[in-house]
Structure formats: structure tokens, C-alpha cells
């Protein structure tokens, strides 16, 4: 009658309704038949031969071999319609300002990982690290692959050294919240002090430029802007499943799609950096307002007034120039003291957006303080008030403004009466 | 003219009518404090900070704890409420931090409210130190931007088991500084960690220890617990290491009166007593009339609100606004305001659910009234402990309801007042719980081949997870987590089984999840038209969607509850042990329970009358669990099948009550089933089994302690004043048959067995 522990467990899990996610999505198991573990265990195994055949080299380290495959692109190679060489000749001045680091192509590393999950915890393992860099008239991508969990330590140690190089800058897409913290986790796990290179995360500038123009701001969405085309790409969420199958014995060939995906990601990073650098150098124009507004707000913050002015003007010229573009431009003009032009935009906005009180408030302020035309100020303030919700905070403010303008008007009337009497 | 408590007690003592209802009146004389000097090594800053708060020496138990902790022991402090337990752990922790600012400590409280309370107290102590000691609360409310700082700079991180499990442990690399320098782990209110919750927490502690050890730390544990029978055993099992127990309080105590009050019989022919609520109202009103600070504990939220409104109605205008109610479901701010009002004496009377039983600081009140047995001796004592002061008289009154258990309690004051309180049990090696945490642990750090996680069979279990493709065995033999999710997110510490049914209140906007239940129990508790009680609010189930694990309910106001009949078919999978005792035989082992709900009865509250029924249309369910069962020699009592069945059912009902009393669990934690002709043994049998898949150790305990449990059950049956069996003792039955006598006949088997066995 005695049941084995495992029998008991299986029954228990079945009746308690435990779901086995990995089982449900496991890829076809034909590759498992070739008893892979045994092969992976011995040195010089067919498993290693397979890696070598696929172009991976073993870098010997004190903690075991690190497997890397380098792919070089001639600088003349076009990617997303532009040769890699263009990055070497473009002006990185404003991009440096954005990165808060001194950028130079030879010190930049474009970094992207593939990991066993999207979590940030200790059990999410990056199994593929790609580092793109410019060297020897090439754009090279080194892909560090972890063929077995046990081999990870050596790879992490090697990469930590690489990232600790002086004045290095890593360039990522969403790396500040994903790739880099994951790498830091791994360093901590292997008892290493995490390196602290300068880090330019292209997600943030890309979002400022193209949010609202492209869809969900995933790297693949941004590629649309760059003219990069991907076909037959493996979806990112499938990468972990392919890897699990591989460590359990599926052939390396099944990983090639993942390698290709990762390789393209890094190429896109370089192409995206070029795009943003050139945008910052004002060498781009779009038929959308949003990217121009994005540029203008950077320039405004950097006190580069002329550039900001030019970009705002480009923005409001576009057909999709929305409330935000025009409103931000008007406030910019106001700060710059260009009152006439600002007020004309406010009047247009008040007309085009009949429910928004803000432009009328600005008009009221303008007439009250700049033009000292109290009658017009009162008119604008009252029109603004009519557009407000009685419970809003602004309502109280505008009510006080109206009150004040009225008092001023009375005082003015009194003064005029006095003046008339005196005359 | 206001009387003080002493005068009022004196009046009651001289009132024969009052005395008649009192089954026990016990006076514990005042006790002076036992003190000890500060340890010589105490840091001068700490000493100065204590002096600033008027503390010039320690209570003996605080010093005892200090000495044990300095000697490197893991300890549990199990002294009564308000004996200064907090200082027992704050002192060594602050001492360590003052001597070495890199030292870190982790405080774990079962609830957020308690955590906040303790942080406030700690801040008081820390404020007077010259060295700055940073204490931070890390829970669901902690803003994201503050988290980074807490991970880096917090000397003392205060959290709860759920956050530890789902947010801290899986992200241990971000907590490097904490784990590397972790010297102390403080686990307060450890008695809460029993049953399924405790079994989960024990596994969370295993994971914590594993991670600490990875970073080279071996933290010492300091537990605090209310008085339970086995603080040492419980905490040793939670921790997996021996703990030293500090249980003799050195704090002074004033004179204390404990009164067990049984409301007067209002209908002698039926043996009907005045309701406990009404009696409590009468007593509470007297106390409050004389402005004696009083806390009243009622069992349900409804009762709390009802009693509070009665007391307000009875009170003078000036006193009325000083009477409040307190229960779960109030907003945190509201609760904090009440707690403060109590401490400062602005609030005179509070009616509470057991929410205030825990160590939330409300100062000491003069009188506490417990309305109805709260489900455990430990809990009763905890409530009584809310009245008690270092100086002056205090009184705790237990008002019994008419339930069999309450009536048994007033007849056995020694069980409530002298006997050691219940033992809190955990069963950390429940396979399902263990497997859940094994996955979480593997995610956190790979397992090495020879590593042990709680059980000796760790490698077998890891191998199983490899087969299930949850883990991968790497070339170096270590086990790595191999799925793209985070396992901790799928495991809830406070719920029973996986794949629970969540209970959705449809009347809320948006619909609100108010609870969850394992699928097996859902068949009988959440079928359509079932009445589901949640914190005493009644809900009716409108739809049960088993496929998607949802039950949709709506609040109702009705005077009945439902009880579903299950057609149960039991299969013994494995007998682990058995004992032949003459005409009966006891067993424990693994069971497969196949159950199909058939119909449900509507049973009127209070009177337990059957007022209607309905059909249930649900598929069969299967539960694998551990059980205790007993079979009878049919020839020992000549009766018909129907009589046997009624007797077995009645025995099952009373056994269930006794098991709940003995094992410190809710009656719903165990199920009972009977067979007149058991297919396995061809004998009449009663099965008692854990309601949780895989079992949580209750059944094994029933097997081991069966003599005591049968004795208690027999006593409950005999003590019930009904002539031939009533819903209180043998459970609901429609027939007018002498079920009580029949059950009594079964008990005589036990006696016979004991004689023969003895």
C-alpha cells in the first residue's frame, strides 16, 4: 500500500489543480531523445563542438570558458537605410549633453540582453549578452552566450571587467530599468562589485521624440521610424522557451533565431543612436509636431533659444500640431518676452478649443499687466471663468483676478473722475 | 456619583443575583515587579535614551532575554501582554547597531498596522540616541522612489511575511546590504503563525536563512509570542533551530479579577439563557456608567456594531461620544485615531472584534469583557489580558453564549484559566506548501545537489521538479529555476490551496474580491444560493464559476445560514499507523476524498432549526489529504443502520468541536464523514480529515491525542443540558430520536477500549 513520495506528490498536485505552465508550452521534445546532459557533462563534448561549428569561440577564463561569437559589419554596410560609418562622422555634442557623458564612438558599447524572463529577481538569468562596438573599420557585435546555467559565472565576470573599462559608456534601450539592473543582480550573485559605466538609455529620448507617433514605444515600434525592416523575427517572449529547450538538449540551431533577433536589436541600437544624434543636431524633420516639440523642449531647457524657437515653429506648422505643441510654444514665447505673438496664439487656441480656459487666462494676464487694458482683461477673465468648473482650484484664482481687475477699474474710474474734476 | 472598579466589584460580589451567574471568580493578587540592573556592556547612548524615558533598570525577563541573546541564542519571549516585550528585542538590536553601524535587522509583523505601531515606538527610543539609526517600513504602501533608499540605508527594515515572501526574498540582490549584515531577525506575534499560514511562514524563514547564508550572514532570531502552550516548540519549528524560551514576566501586575459569567436562564423549561450580548450590554453599561475604561470583544462585526450602539444608547450624554467600535474594514486613519484615543484616555469604551487582540498599543484598560468563546484559550487569555495594569485593580469578564463549547467552558473554568493554552501547530513539510517554496527558493538561488530544504528528501523533490520542467539540472549538478515567471507571485501565504476560488462581491463598484477558498470547500460553502459569512456580514452566492475559480456574491440580510450535504466517498490510500483498542480501531494515514454536493439546508441562526432546502448541481471533487479514522465493532451495539448512521454523525459533530478546541483550529479546518458499512473495513466508521490538500497535521494530532479529544467530546455531550441531543451538541437533526443516548453508546466503546487497552 505504501506509495512513493513522488507518486503521492503527483496525485496531490493533480487533485489540487496545480498548473504546470512550462509543460503546457514546452516545444517539441524530439531533441531530448539524444541524451544531451551526458554530452554536456564531458569536456570536448559534441555540445561544445556544436557551439564551435556555429562560430562560437571559447575564451578561456579561470572560471571556465566563455562562449562568444563576433559578427562584423563593414562600415559601408547599410542598416535602416544608412551606413554604419555615418555614426563615426556625426556630431555627438548634443547627444553627450543628453547622456551627461562625453561620448565618443570608440568608447561606446551598445548593450542588449536576452534573459529567462521579464522579472527582475534573482532567478531571472540573462543567457545572451550582446555588445556592439566600433573597431577596426567595422561595427562589431560580440554575442556572449551562456550554454548552461553553470557557465554563467565566467561570462558575468568577463563582462564586468569589460564594462569597468575607463570612460566607457553603455547605450541601451530600456536598459536603465531592465538590462542593466539584471546585469548588476548577476554581479551581486557572483560576489562582484558591479561596474558603474555612464549609461545612455535611448528609450527616454526616443519616447520624447516619437511618443504618439509610433505605437507602444517598443524597440520594434521605433524601428518603423528608422526604416529598419524585420522579417521572420522570433517574438521576444519566445526566447526564454527556446533557451529552456536548448539547455534540455534541443540543437543549437533552434537558438539561431534568438541570436539573430538579439543581433538586430544591437544594430538597431546603433542606428537609433545615430537618428537621435542627428535629430538633436537639427538635421531631421518630420511631418509630425511631436518630435519637433520634443527637440524644442530640450533646447529650451538647455537655453539654446534659437534652436528651440526654430523647432517650435516647425512643430506648429505641422498638420497634426495639437494643443500641446501650440500651447508650449506660446509659453515659450511668453518667457522670451514675445508677447504679441504669444497672445495671438492664445486667441487662436481660445477659439479652436472652446472648452479650455487656459489661453483666456493668459490673455487676461497679458491685458492686465502688459497692455494695461483693464476692460479687455476683464472680458477675457470672465470668458475664462465661464469655461471653468466651479469646484476647480483655478476657479477661485480667476474669481480673485476678476475681483482685482474690477477694483482697479473702479479706482481708475475714480482717478479719471478726479482728474476731470481737477481739469 | 462615580464608583471606582473596586467598589463596583464589591457591589457585584455582595449581590446574590449576580453571584448566582458566576461560575468562577478568581482574584490574582497584585505582584511586585522583579527587576534587574542594566547589563554592564550596554551602550551609554542606549542607556541615556532609556533614562530619558524614565527607565532606570530592566524587568527580570528583559534582562534574561538580553543575556540569552548576547550568548548567541535564538529566543522566544512569551510573557503576557504589556510586559515590555518590545524592549526585549529593541535593546539588543540597537546595541548591535550602535556598536557597529553596518549591522542590519529585519522586523516582521503579521500586519501593517502592527508594524506602524512598533515603528512609532522604536522612533521614540531612537530619537534620543546621538547616533542616527534609520528605521523604515517596507510594505505595499512604501512609495517606489523611497524603496532604493530603504534597501541601502535602513538599519532596521520593518515588513510583513507577505512582502518578505513576494518582494524582498526574490529580489535579494537588491538587498545586498541588508542580507550581508543581517544580525537579527525579529518575528513578533509569532503565535499567529500557525496552521497553513504558519507552515508557509516557516518555509519563508527557510528561504530567508538560505539567502542570508549565501551572503555569509547567520542572523539570530528573536520571536515574541502571546501565551500559548508551546512557544518554544512552535518557534523552533518555524525556525528549524532550537529556541530558548523566556516566559516568566518580571513586570509588576495589579490585582486582577477574572469572572466567568453565565447569563441567567430565562426559560427554565427549555433551558434557554439570556443572550450573551444582552448580558454583556448590561455589564458593560455599568462599567461605563462609572467611567471605567472598558474593552468589549464580540465575535462578529455585526455584534460589534450592535453592542456599541446599545452601549451608546445606554450611556449618559457626556460619555456617549467616548464609546466607539473598532474592527477590520475600518480605514487605517480611523483605526489609528481610535488607538490614540484609547492610549490618551479620551476614549472610554471600545467594542472590538479580535482585531485588537494583537499587540496594537492601546494602553491598559481597567476592564475587559469577552462575549462568547473566541475559538481558542490563547485568544481568550489574550483578550482578558487587555485589562491589566501595573498598578491598581483590573477585571476580565467572560460572558458565555449558549453554545455547547461556551457552556463547557463555564463548567470547566480550569480549562480556560489554568490549563496550558492550546499548542499552536505548524506543518511546514506539507508537500504542496513545501513544493511552492522549493520553487521560490530555486528561483532565488540555485540548489546545490547536496542541499537540504527542510526535508531529507529534498533531492527527490528537486528531481521531481526537473521532471516537471520547472527546474533544470545544470552541468555542475546544481538545480536552476527554468520558467519565465516569478514563482512567488503565484503563491499566497494566507490562502490554503493553489487554484483557489476567489469570492467577488458584486454589489461593490467596482466588484471587490473579499476572500478566497479552496476548491474543495467551495463545493459546500460557495454553491449557488449558499450563505457565505465574511467577517459576520452575510453574502449570498449568486453564481459559482468553478472553471474560472470565481464565486459571485452579494450582501444579504437574512436569519439563516446554509449547510450543504456532501455525498462523500472515501478511499484509504495509505495507513500510516493504527491502534487496535478492543471494539474499536484508530487509524491515521492518507485519504482520497471524492465528494459530490447534493443538497443544502437552510438553518436558522441561534435556534438551528431547519427552515428549507435546495439542490446543488456541481461536479464531483477529489481531495487528497491526511486523515484520522476510527472503526467500530458493529456487534458492540445492536442498532439499526439508521440508528448507527445518526449516532456516527452525532459523534462526528461533537468530535469536530473537540478537535477544534484541542488543535487550535477552526471547526471548518477539518471535515468529518461517516460510513455505516465502510467499504474498506466493513465496519461502521467515522473519518476526520484535514480540509487542506496534503493535510496540515491536524489529523495526525487527533490520532495521537485521541484519548483527550474523546474525553473532551464526551464531556461536551454530557454537559449539554438538552435531554436527547440538540444542534449544539450532536448537530442539526430533524428527527426527535434520542441521538444523544446513541452517541453515548458509541462513547462507551472508547471506555471499553481504554480498559482493555490499559
What's the helical proportion of residues of chain B?
25-40%
Low confidence ranges of chain B: 754-758
Mean pLDDT of chain B: 85
CATH class of the largest domain in chain B: Alpha Beta
Give the low-confidence spans of chain A: 20-42
Overall structural class of chain B, as computed from helix and strand content, comes to alpha/beta
Oligomer: heterodimer
**How many independent structural domains of chain A?**
2
Number of helices of chain B: 24
CATH class of the largest domain in chain A: Alpha Beta
Q: What is the alpha-carbon Rg of chain B in Å?
A: 27 Å
Number of structural domains of chain B: 5
Shape of chain B: globular
CATH topology of the largest domain in chain A: Nucleotidyltransferase, domain 5
Record keyword descriptors for this entry:
heterodimer; A: 423 residues; alpha+beta; Nucleotidyltransferase, domain 5; Serine Threonine Protein Phosphatase 5, Tetratricopeptide repeat; seven-stranded mixed sheet; two-stranded antiparallel ribbon; 9 strands; 53% helix; elongated; B: 758 residues; alpha/beta; Rossmann fold; 5 domains; seven-stranded parallel sheet; 24 helices; 31 strands; disordered C terminus
Written overview of the protein:
The complex is a heterodimer of chains A (423) and B (758). Chain A is α+β, with helices and mostly antiparallel strands and 423 residues long. Chain A has 2 domains: 46-280, Ribonuclease H-like superfamily/Ribonuclease H (Nucleotidyltransferase, domain 5), CATH 3.30.420; 289-422, Tetratricopeptide repeat domain (Serine Threonine Protein Phosphatase 5, Tetratricopeptide repeat), CATH 1.25.40.10. Chain A contains 19 helices and 9 strands. Chain A is elongated, with a radius of gyration of 31 Å. Mean pLDDT of chain A is 89; it is low at 20-42. Chain B folds into 5 domains: 5-29 and 253-417, Rossmann fold (3-Layer(aba) Sandwich); 35-246, Rossmann fold (3-Layer(aba) Sandwich); 431-490; 495-558; 565-757, no CATH class. Chain B has 24 helices and 31 strands. Chain B has a 7-stranded mixed beta sheet with strand order 1-11-18-17-14-16-15, with helices on both faces. A 7-stranded parallel beta sheet of chain B has the order 6-7-5-8-9-4-10, with helices on both faces. In chain B, strands 26, 27, 28, 29, 30 and 31 form a 6-stranded antiparallel beta sheet that branches. In chain B, a hairpin with a 6-residue loop joins strand 21 and strand 22. In chain B, helix 21 (641-663) packs across helix 24. Chain B is globular, with a radius of gyration of 27 Å. Residues 754-758 of chain B have low confidence and may be disordered. The interface between A and B is large, with 48 and 50 residues.
Amino acid at each position: 500500500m505504501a506509495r512513493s513520495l513522488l507518486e503521492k506528490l503527483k496525485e496531490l498536485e493533480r487533485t489540487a489543480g496545480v498548473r504546470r505552465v512550462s509543460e503546457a508550452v514546452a516545444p517539441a521534445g524530439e531533441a531530448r531523445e539524444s541524451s544531451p546532459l551526458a554530452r554536456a557533462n564531458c569536456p570536448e563534448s559534441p555540445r561544445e563542438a556544436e557551439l564551435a561549428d556555429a562560430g562560437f569561440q571559447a575564451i578561456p577564463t579561470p572560471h571556465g570558458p566563455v562562449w562568444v561569437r563576433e559578427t562584423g559589419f563593414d562600415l559601408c554596410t547599410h542598416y535602416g537605410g544608412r551606413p554604419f560609418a555615418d555614426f563615426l562622422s556625426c556630431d555627438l555634442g548634443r547627444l553627450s549633453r543628453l547622456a551627461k557623458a562625453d561620448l565618443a564612438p570608440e568608447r561606446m558599447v551598445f548593450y542588449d540582453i536576452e534573459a529567462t524572463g521579464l522579472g527582475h529577481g534573482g532567478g531571472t538569468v540573462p543567457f545572451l549578452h550582446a555588445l556592439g562596438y566600433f573597431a577596426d573599420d567595422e561595427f562589431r557585435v560580440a554575442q556572449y552566450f551562456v550554454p548552461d546555467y553553470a557557465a554563467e559565472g565566467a561570462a558575468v565576470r568577463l563582462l564586468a571587467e569589460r564594462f569597468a573599462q575607463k570612460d566607457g559608456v553603455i547605450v541601451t534601450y530600456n536598459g536603465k530599468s531592465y538590462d542593466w539592473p539584471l546585469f548588476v543582480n548577476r554581479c551581486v550573485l557572483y560576489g562582484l562589485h558591479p561596474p558603474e559605466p555612464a549609461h545612455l538609455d535611448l528609450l527616454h529620448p526616443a519616447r520624447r521624440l516619437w511618443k504618439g507617433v509610433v505605437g507602444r514605444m517598443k524597440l520594434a515600434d521605433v524601428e518603423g521610424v528608422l526604416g529598419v525592416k524585420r522579417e521572420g523575427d522570433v517574438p521576444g517572449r519566445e526566447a526564454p522557451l527556446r533557451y529552456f529547450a536548448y539547455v534540455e538538449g534541443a540543437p543549437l540551431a533552434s537558438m539561431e533565431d534568438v541570436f539573430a533577433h538579439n543581433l538586430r536589436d544591437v544594430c538597431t541600437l546603433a542606428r537609433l543612436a545615430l537618428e537621435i544624434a542627428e535629430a538633436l543636431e537639427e538635421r531631421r524633420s518630420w511631418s509630425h509636431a511631436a518630435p519637433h516639440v520634443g527637440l524644442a523642449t530640450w533646447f529650451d531647457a538647455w537655453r539654446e533659444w534659437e534652436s528651440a524657437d526654430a523647432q517650435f515653429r516647425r512643430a506648429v506648422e505641422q498638420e497634426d500640431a495639437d494643443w500641446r505643441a501650440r500651447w508650449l510654444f506660446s509659453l515659450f514665447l511668453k518667457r522670451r518676452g514675445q508677447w504679441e505673438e504669444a497672445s495671438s496664439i492664445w486667441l487662436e487656441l481660445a477659439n479652436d478649443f472652446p472648452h479650455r480656459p487656459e489661453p483666456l487666462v493668459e490673455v487676461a494676464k497679458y491685458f492686465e499687466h502688459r497692455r494695461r487694458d483693464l476692460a479687455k482683461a476683464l472680458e477675457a477673465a470672465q470668458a475664462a471663468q465661464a469655461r471653468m468648473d466651479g469646484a476647480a482650484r483655478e476657479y477661485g484664482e480667476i474669481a480673485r483676478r476678476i475681483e482685482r481687475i474690477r477694483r482697479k477699474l473702479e479706482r481708475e474710474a475714480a482717478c479719471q473722475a478726479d482728474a476731470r474734476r481737477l481739469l | 456619583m462615580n464608583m471606582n472598579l473596586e467598589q463596583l466589584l464589591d457591589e457585584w460580589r455582595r449581590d446574590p443575583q449576580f453571584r448566582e451567574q458566576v461560575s468562577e471568580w478568581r482574584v490574582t493578587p497584585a505582584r511586585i515587579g522583579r527587576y534587574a540592573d542594566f547589563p554592564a556592556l550596554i551602550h551609554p547612548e542606549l542607556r541615556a535614551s532609556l533614562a530619558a524615558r524614565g527607565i532606570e533598570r530592566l524587568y527580570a525577563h528583559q534582562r534574561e532575554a538580553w543575556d540569552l541573546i548576547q550568548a548567541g541564542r535564538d529566543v522566544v519571549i512569551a510573557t503576557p501582554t504589556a510586559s515590555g516585550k518590545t524592549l526585549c528585542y529593541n535593546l539588543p538590536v540597537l546595541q548591535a547597531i550602535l556598536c557597529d553601524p553596518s549591522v542590519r535587522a529585519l522586523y516582521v509583523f503579521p500586519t501593517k498596522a502592527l508594524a506602524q505601531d512598533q515603528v512609532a515606538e522604536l522612533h521614540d527610543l531612537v530619537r534620543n540616541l546621538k547616533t542616527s539609526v534609520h528605521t523604515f517600513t517596507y510594505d505595499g504602501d512604501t512609495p517606489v522612489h523611497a524603496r532604493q533608499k530603504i534597501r541601502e540605508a535602513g538599519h532596521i527594515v520593518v515588513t510583513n511575511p507577505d512582502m518578505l515572501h513576494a518582494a524582498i526574498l526574490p529580489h535579494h540582490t537588491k538587498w545586498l546590504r541588508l542580507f550581508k549584515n543581517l544580525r537579527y531577525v525579529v518575528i513578533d506575534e509569532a503565535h499567529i503563525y500557525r496552521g497553513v499560514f504558519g507552515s508557509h511562514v516557516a518555509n519563508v524563514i527557510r528561504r530567508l536563512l538560505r539567502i542570508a547564508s549565501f551572503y555569509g550572514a547567520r542572523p539570530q532570531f528573536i520571536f515574541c509570542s502571546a501565551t500559548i502552550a508551546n512557544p518554544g516548540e512552535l518557534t523552533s519549528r518555524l525556525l528549524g533551530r532550537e529556541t530558548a524560551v523566556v516566559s516568566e514576566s518580571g513586570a509588576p501586575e495589579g490585582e486582577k479579577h477574572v469572572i466567568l459569567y453565565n447569563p441567567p436562564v430565562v426559560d427554565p423549561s427549555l433551558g434557554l439563557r439570556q443572550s450573551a450580548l444582552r448580558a454583556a450590554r448590561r455589564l458593560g453599561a455599568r462599567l461605563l456608567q462609572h467611567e471605567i475604561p472598558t474593552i468589549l470583544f464580540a465575535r462578529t462585526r455585526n455584534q460589534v456594531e450592535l453592542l456599541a450602539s446599545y452601549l451608546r444608547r445606554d450611556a449618559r450624554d457626556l460619555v456617549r461620544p467616548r464609546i466607539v467600535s473598532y474592527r477590520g474594514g475600518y480605514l487605517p486613519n480611523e483605526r489609528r485615531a481610535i488607538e490614540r484615543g484609547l492610549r490618551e484616555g479620551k476614549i472610554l469604551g471600545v467594542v472590538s472584534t479580535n482585531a485588537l487582540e494583537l499587540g496594537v498599543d492601546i494602553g491598559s484598560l481597567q476592564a475587559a469583557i469577552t462575549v462568547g468563546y473566541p475559538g481558542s484559550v490563547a485568544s481568550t487569555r489574550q483578550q482578558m489580558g487587555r485589562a491589566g495594569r501595573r498598578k491598581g485593580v483590573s477585571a476580565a469578564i467572560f460572558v458565555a453564549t449558549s453554545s455547547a463549547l461556551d457552556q463547557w467552558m463555564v463548567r470547566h473554568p480550569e480549562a480556560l484559566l489554568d490549563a496550558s493554552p492550546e499548542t499552536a501547530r505548524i506543518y511546514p513539510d506539507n508537500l504542496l506548501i513545501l513544493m511552492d517554496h522549493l520553487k521560490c527558493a530555486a528561483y532565488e538561488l540555485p540548489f546545490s545537489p547536496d542541499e537540504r530544504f527542510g526535508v531529507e528528501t529534498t533531492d527527490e523533490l528537486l528531481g521531481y521538479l526537473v521532471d516537471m520542467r520547472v527546474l533544470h539540472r545544470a552541468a555542475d549538478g546544481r538545480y536552476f529555476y527554468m520558467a519565465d515567471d516569478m514563482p512567488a507571485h503565484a503563491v499566497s501565504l494566507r490562502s490554503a490551496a493553489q487554484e483557489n476560488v476567489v469570492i467577488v462581491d458584486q454589489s461593490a463598484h467596482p466588484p471587490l474580491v473579499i476572500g478566497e477558498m479552496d476548491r474543495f470547500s467551495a463545493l459546500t460553502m460557495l454553491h449557488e444560493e449558499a450563505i457565505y459569512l465574511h467577517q459576520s456580514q452575510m453574502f449570498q452566492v449568486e453564481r459559482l464559476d468553478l472553471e474560472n475559480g470565481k464565486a459571485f456574491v452579494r450582501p444579504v440580510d437574512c436569519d439563516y445560514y446554509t449547510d450543504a450535504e456532501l455525498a462523500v466517498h472515501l478511499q484509504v490510500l495509505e495507513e500510516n499507523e493504527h491502534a487496535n483498542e478492543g471494539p474499536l480501531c484508530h487509524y491515521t494515514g492518507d485519504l482520497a476524498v471524492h465528494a459530490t454536493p447534493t443538497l443544502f439546508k437552510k438553518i436558522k441562526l441561534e435556534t438551528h432549526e431547519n427552515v428549507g432546502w435546495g439542490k446543488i448541481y456541481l461536479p464531483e471533487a477529489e481531495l487528497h489529504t491526511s486523515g484520522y479514522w476510527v472503526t467500530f465493532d458493529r456487534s458492540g451495539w445492536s442498532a439499526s443502520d439508521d440508528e448507527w448512521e445518526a449516532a456516527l454523525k452525532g459523534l462526528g459533530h461533537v468530535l469536530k468541536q473537540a478537535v477544534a478546541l484541542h488543535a487550535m483550529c477552526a471547526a471548518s479546518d477539518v471535515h468529518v464523514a461517516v460510513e455505516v458499512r465502510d467499504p474498506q473495513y466493513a465496519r461502521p466508521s467515522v473519518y476526520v480529515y484535514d480540509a487542506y490538500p496534503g493535510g496540515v497535521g491536524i489529523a495526525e494530532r487527533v490520532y495521537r491525542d485521541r484519548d483527550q479529544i474523546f474525553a473532551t467530546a464526551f464531556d461536551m455531550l454530557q454537559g449539554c443540558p438538552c435531554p436527547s441531543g440538540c444542534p449544539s451538541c450532536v448537530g442539526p437533526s430533524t428527527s426527535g430520536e434520542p441521538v444523544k443516548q446513541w452517541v453515548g453508546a458509541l462513547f462507551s466503546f472508547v471506555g471499553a477500549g481504554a480498559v482493555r487497552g490499559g
